[in-house]
Amino acid sequence: MPSLPSPPGTQERILYYAGLPSRPPLVARSSVFSWKEPTGPEAYPRKKHLSNVGKHPIVHLFDDIAPEIIDSLDSKSVLWTCIDVVRIGHEGENLPPVILWIGVKPSSLSGEHAIQVAVACKNLLVKHGITDVECEIREAERVLQPALMKPTLSDDDTVNLRVHLTNTVGVSIASEAHPHVEGSLGFYFSQGGDDKLYALTARHVIFPNSPPNTRFDFKSSGQKHPKVMLPADGTLKRLKNDLCNGIRVQTEHIHRKKIALAAAVESQENGDEGNVAKQVKRRIEDAEDEIHAYNELGMCLNSWATRESRVIGHAILAPPFGPTEKPDNYMIDWCIIEVDPSKMVSFSGNTIDLGTEIRDYHLNELMNPNIRNAHKFVYPHGRQLLIQSVIPIDELKKPKTLHGDDAKCLLVLMRGRSTGVTVGRANEDSIHGLR
Questions:
Q1: What is the DSSP letter of 359?
Q2: Which terminal residue of the chain has fewer beta carbons within 10 Å of its beta carbon, N or C?
Q3: CB neighbours (10 Å) of residue 158?
Q4: Is the Cβ–Cβ distance between 99 and 134 less than 8 Å?
Q5: Are 218 and 316 in contact (CB under 8 A)?
Q6: Residue 77: inside a domain, yes or no?
Q7: Residue 293: pLDDT above 60?
């Protein structure tokens, strides 16, 4: 009978998953190789990364194996929080090993007991003919409803995808009852007397074609409150498609660059080929880093899969849709959402994420078309444009700013759930539209 692996030591527990965003502590593993602690003056652990499984027999068999694994964990009184099958390997590995990755409640499983659990799960895989997959157990809390993300750095390869999962203005939302009707989140606000946070959107997004067209007031009527999701189903689907396309494009790019690298290495007579090879290698590494970033975001999206996990709050007030009395003739179309505070772990006010589709210098040019304008647009540090005031109606009707042709206009910038960041001139007659 083969000997059992040893429980991980303190350093292995801490450093084993170096490089992963969550860097969870290792509890136990079924593999028997000896982990080596980094040594030397620059003793840094090799970074690891996650990726999807792809082609492997476990993909088609796991639905049958999973109930047996759960029964095994429950029979051993394991407080497990999640069960995943992923590839985990060091950066640079073309095909990292497939791992049965089990999360357990922190401090709930001892080393010796955990080793027995890991080996038992490994043996279940072997029973089904899967001999090349190890079991690893890490500490992981259950997160049923993920909090909205912080905007990431501009040099992050996923910056324009992550924006749809943040609490910035203009991102996609929908009612859980009507998940395919998407709209944009308008802005956040609070009111005196309580510490709650609210958000504003259009009534027709939360109550699309929903007669009767009457006032909805959750507090006074006791009606069932419509739940609001961020992002909507369509946006989440587009995110997943964009991730897959990004991985495909970069994989093809790596293939082409490897062919170019081989050609450069073979042509060493010319003095510049060494530099060319180095440049090609750097581009291959950049493409591999981008694939890793896409894979990590893809793993994060797994926790956003259900509609319940994307609920950020519920509607509490919406007046009937329709025009106001003359002479204003505004069209009333708004709805107030009470926001779940657990989703807002990092809220820095009403900000528009300017993204990176429009370069900072080009956006400055678009927003400053005439040097005679008193107000100058300055691209904000970190891309987050803070909304600080409200434009008076008089200025909406009679703009003071000048376009490049010296015509008076109101320059506007917005982020929409479909359009992204756009710049244009407001129509002064549009103030008689939606309010």
A1: -
A2: N
A3: 20
A4: yes
A5: yes
A6: yes
A7: yes
* Residues 143-182: tens digit of each pLDDT: 556 888 888 888 888 999 999 999 999 999 999 999 999 9
Burial class (CB in 10 A: 0-12, 13-18, 19+), 398: exposed
Q: How many domains does the chain have?
A: 2
If 0-12 CB within 10 Å is exposed, 13-18 middle and 19+ buried, where does residue 33 land? exposed
In eight-state DSSP terms, residue 46 is P
pLDDT tens, residue by residue, 42-84: 667 888 888 778 789 998 898 889 999 999 999 999 999 888 8
User: For residues 102 and 133, what is the distance between their CA atoms, to the nearest angstrom?
Assistant: 13
Contact of 201 with 183, CB cutoff 8 Å: yes
Take residue 195 and report the two structure tokens written for it.
């510490």
Q: Is the dihedral of CA 233, 235, 240, 241 positive or negative?
A: positive
Collapse the DSSP code of 301 into the 3-class scheme (helix H, G, I; strand E, B; otherwise coil) and give the result. helix
DSSP code for 225: P
For the chain, give percent helix, strand, coil, nearest 5.
35, 25, 45
- Pick from 89, 113, 139: which residue ends a domain? 139
Cβ contact 333:435 at 8 Å: yes
Does any domain span residue 224? no
- Residue 206 contacts residue 185 (beta carbons within 8 Å): no
Q: How many CB atoms lie within 10 A of CB 385?
A: 21
The boundaries of the domain holding residue 395 are: 350-432
CA atoms within 13 A on the CB side of 168: 28
Q: What one-character DSSP code corresponds to residue 356? A: S
What do you get for the CA distance between the two ends of the chain, in Å? 75
Helices (H), 30-145: 57-75, 111-127
Query: Alpha-carbon distance 41 to 299, whole Å?
Result: 34
Query: Which tokens belong to 423?
Result: 């710049």
Output the pTM of the full model: 0.64
Tell me the C-alpha distance between 249 and 125, whole Å: 34
Q: Could you tell me if residue 405 is inside a domain?
A: yes
E strand or H helix at 84: strand 80-90
Task: State how far the Cα of 134 lies from the Cα of 112, in Å rounded to an integer.
Answer: 17
Residue 424: φ, ψ to 5°: -165, -170
- Both tokens of 80, joined, read 């497990």
- Token pair for residue 132? 């090349």
DSSP assignment of 239-263: HHHHHHHHHHHHHHHHHHHHHHHHH
Residue 207 lies in a domain: no
- Determine which helix (DSSP H) or strand (DSSP E) holds 220, and give its type and residue range: helix 218-221
CA distances from 424 to 309, 365, 403, 433 (A): 35, 12, 10, 17
